[in-house]
Specification:
The complex is a heterodimer.
Chain A (H helix, E strand, L loop, with lengths): L1 H33 L5 H28 L27 H20 L8 H23 L4 H4 L8 H19 L20 H20 L9 H28 L4 H18 L5 H24 L8 H19 L22 H31 L7 H6 L1 H6 L5 H20 L1
Helix pairs in contact in A: 1-2, 1-3, 1-7, 2-3, 2-4, 3-4, 3-6, 4-6, 4-12, 6-11, 6-12, 7-8, 7-9, 8-9, 8-10, 9-10, 9-11, 10-11, 11-12
Chain B lengths: L3 H11 L7 H22 L9 E5 L1 H4 L11 E5 L4 H21 L16 E3 H14 L2 H11 L2 E4 L3 H16 L1 H10 L24 E3 H20 L6 H9 L5 H4 L2 H18 L7 E3 L5 H25 L1
Parallel strand pairs in B: 2-3
Antiparallel strand pairs in B: 1-2, 1-4, 5-6
Classes of the chains: A mainly alpha, B alpha+beta.
Chain lengths: 434, 317
């Protein structure tokens, strides 16, 4: 019986790894759909090679920095991961299954970070930053919370990574957005902003749906096993929060502007998912609904706030993964059930269950420490790159013509872009001779 | 000897002194356009027109609600069709459109100009065309009919226009579906009040934080009042005059109660916009510059406009 359980645990987590990796398909569609036609091939394609780079770095040093033997700050063994044991000692996961599952999270965090680079960063910047982020930013935060670092010892609750994956990614995205500055045409001279609408809402929608499905692996397999069927409980909470987030965001957009905006609704579903990521294994289903609802409302206001601050965030990564990632982490401090926290020795119950402010404090400390680390280190790294590489951003001409052609030499939509070019040339000629 | 250039100069140097109120501004526009007609007639090879004719303006000019700048909307109705007459008025129409553009009324995107044969016809042909439009009931012909209903004479007798509008009135009396088609054509309303009762300003672009008065405030009033005017055969073209005439009818007394006052206030808002803003767009009102009371008033006017619009639609459907 025990042998069957071990096999099932391994199988479930391996399936989880596949589901999480498939979330990249969601990101590809989400990002490509939310950006303009001239950048579509680039935005989609770069996700594949940064996933490649991220994997190699994670294999070389990332896993070791997180789970190796080290100190409260960082792990320092298991580099160039190559544990050949097939059966885990004492009936756990095989090291390779565990490694694969962990690697996917690192890649997702990296993909989130690159959201802040969209439509204006040089390709070479993606290459260098993929390496630096995967080695120096993500593993440190992951070690603190999941790898037995100093925050884990405090009893920090982050079931599947609202902080570790989403907030860390978003903080790097924030640093990048601030250094890169807004895209050409985003803001007018009088300070008002323009919509640089994404070119395909259907892509974006399908992207969100794929992410949603992938999230069942992201959260569900973070149980690391099938014991007691707890994975079903986690999946239930995940579904409820995502549903609530979508509904809340659409309603909020309608109340605010009179129109039920589609991109906002989609970000609401993602907000629900991000919010429940930290708490899916700790809270009751009704709380999951509340956590999702709050996330959905929050994401709308957060997007508006960033826009007003002149922070140009093309795919709302800062709001969806950052702002809501913080809320998700803090929500544990309010809603964590005693049976799923205190009783099993994983932190304390939330404020509403008599746990007082203790867990909320631990969660807040985790958010501040992890967020600050990710932001400061990413900011410094990008600033150094900015100096060394002669700027992070493509030239104005390249940005206008689009990164498909400037960085890769061919368009994602060759026929349509040729037409657009012809129109532009005619317009320019007309202007000259009229 | 006047030319288009001299009219333009005169217009530009005197315009600001007519910004006292809407009546004075529109009377001034009328004078400018009448001068354009005189020059256009003088530029024709044939110095005397071959028969009687009426030159009308429509659109906001027809309603006596023109802003500082608006594009030209006009047409010609002449006494009788003949080879010579058709040619003369075709040329006069072209000359007029050119002159209006030169003086500062840009060409109309929708091509509602005397230079377009559709808008330059003998009275008999006009009647045939109106009947064709009324029979067709297509989106475009319904638009044209409503545009025609805002026409008033700038030159020549008002009789032709009255005669043609009477034809529309009688036709719709006998064919109630026509009024329904007019109604369907103006049913859409750009909502400016949110579910929480807040003003819905533009979210993006250079008019961020502004309300588009034309679509959210003016059109609900203009369209619903026009609809009732067609139904009742009212010939007046300005929305305010139409309201007065409607108020005289017992069944509209209640409905029209605040319409006059509200529409007047809207016109004054717009007038105040001309003074501060550049000429280019006088329909965008910056919500931030309004006092609390003004905001309240604007909301009241917008809500009333929506109510009026909805009730009129209910009434004719």
């Amino acid at each position: 019986m025990e042998a069957v359980q071990v096999l099932m645990d391994n199988l479930w987590v391996a399936i989880g790894a596949i589901l999480v990796f498939f979330m990249l398909g969601g990101f590809i569609l989400l990002e490509a759909g939310s950006t303009r036609m001239k950048n579509a091939g680039h935005v989609a394609g770069k996700t594949i090679f940064t996933a490649g780079l991220g994997t190699l770095v994670f294999w070389a040093v990332g896993y070791g920095f997180i789970y190796g033997d080290g100190n409260a700050f960082i792990g320092l063994s298991n580099f160039f991961y190559g544990d050949t044991t097939t059966a885990a000692e004492a009936g756990g996961l095989t090291p390779a299954v565990d490694f694969s599952f962990q690697a996917m999270f690192a890649i997702v965090a990296l993909t989130i970070a690159f959201g802040g680079f969209a439509e204006r960063a040089k390709l070479s910047v993606y290459v260098i930053f993929a390496i630096l982020f995967s080695a120096l930013v993500y593993p440190v935060v992951a070690h603190w919370i999941w790898g037995g670092g100093w925050l884990a010892e405090h009893g920090k609750q982050d079931f599947a990574g609202s902080t570790v994956v989403h907030l860390t990614g978003a903080m790097a995205a924030l640093a990048a957005t601030m250094i890169l500055k807004p895209r050409i045409g985003k803001y007018n001279r009088d300070g008002s902003s323009n919509v640089l609408a994404g070119h395909n809402q259907v892509y974006t929608t399908l992207g969100v749906l794929i992410l949603w499905v992938g999230w069942f692996g992201f959260n569900g397999a973070s149980t690391f096993g099938v014991a007691d069927g707890f994975l079903g409980y986690v999946i239930l909470n995940t579904q409820l929060a995502a549903a609530a987030g979508a509904v809340a965001a659409m309603f909020t957009a309608w109340v605010k502007t009179g129109k039920a905006d589609v991109p906002t609704t989609l970000n609401g579903a993602l907000a629900g998912l991000v919010a429940i990521t930290a708490s899916c294994g700790f809270v009751a289903p009704w709380a999951a609904v509340i956590i999702g609802l709050v996330g959905g409302v929050m994401v709308v206001f957060s997007m508006q706030l960033f826009e007003k601050q002149k922070i140009d965030d093309p795919i709302a990564a800062l709001s969806v993964h950052g702002t809501v990632g913080i809320w998700g982490t803090l929500s544990n401090g309010l809603f964590a059930l005693p049976a799923l926290s205190t009783d099993i020795g994983w932190g304390q119950a939330g404020l509403f269950y008599g746990g007082g402010f203790e867990q909320l404090g631990v969660q807040a400390l985790g958010v501040v420490a992890s967020g600050a680390y990710a932001f400061v280190v990413a900011f410094i790294l990008l600033k150094i790159m900015d100096k060394v590489m002669g700027g992070l951003r493509v030239t104005e001409e390249e940005e206008i013509m689009g990164l498909d052609i400037s960085e890769h030499g061919s368009y994602g939509y060759p026929e349509q872009m040729a037409l657009e070019e012809a129109k532009l040339t005619t317009a320019a000629t007309k202007e000259k001779f009229s | 000897m006047e030319t288009y250039e001299s009219i333009k100069e005169w217009k530009n140097s005197n315009l600001s002194s007519f910004l006292i109120n809407n009546v004075s501004l529109n009377t001034f526009h009328d004078q400018v356009m009448q001068k354009v007609l005189e020059v256009a007639k003088g530029n024709m090879k044939q110095k005397r027109s071959p028969c009687k004719f009426t030159w009308f303006i429509t659109g906001s000019g027809g309603r006596f609600e023109q802003a500082l700048i608006s594009d030209q909307d006009h047409g010609i109705i002449y006494e009788q069709s003949s080879k010579e007459n058709d040619l003369y008025f075709k040329q006069l129409g072209e000359e007029l459109s050119y002159g209006m553009d030169t003086v500062g009324y840009p060409y109309c995107n929708g091509n509602i100009m005397s230079s377009n044969p559709i808008w330059c016809k003998s009275v008999t042909d006009w009647e045939l065309q109106l009947r064709k439009w009324m029979g067709e009931e297509s989106w475009e012909s319904i638009r044209y009919l409503q545009i025609f209903y805002d026409a008033r004479a700038l030159y020549g007798s008002e009789d032709y226009i009255k005669q043609l509008k009477a034809a529309i009135y009688h036709y719709q009396n006998d064919n109630p579906t026509l009024l329904m088609r007019f109604m369907e054509n103006v049913k859409h309303l750009k909502n400016a009040i949110g579910p929480m009762g807040q003003l819905l300003a533009e979210q993006h672009g250079s008019y961020q934080g502004h309300i588009n008065l034309k679509y959210t405030a003016f059109l609900p009033y203009v369209n619903s009042i026009r609809l009732l005017s067609i139904k009742e055969g009212i010939c007046a073209t300005s929305t305010l005059e139409r309201i007065i005439e409607l108020q005289e009818k017992e069944e509209y007394k209640e409905l029209m109660k605040y319409s006059y006052e509200n529409f007047m206030t809207l016109m004054n808002y717009r007038l105040s916009l001309f003074k501060v803003k550049e000429y280019d767009d006088t329909h965008y009102l910056n919500v931030k510059t309004l006092t609390k009371e003004q905001r309240k008033e604007l909301k009241r006017i917008l809500k009333y406009g929506k109510k009026l619009h909805d009730e009129v639609i209910e009434l004719v459907s």
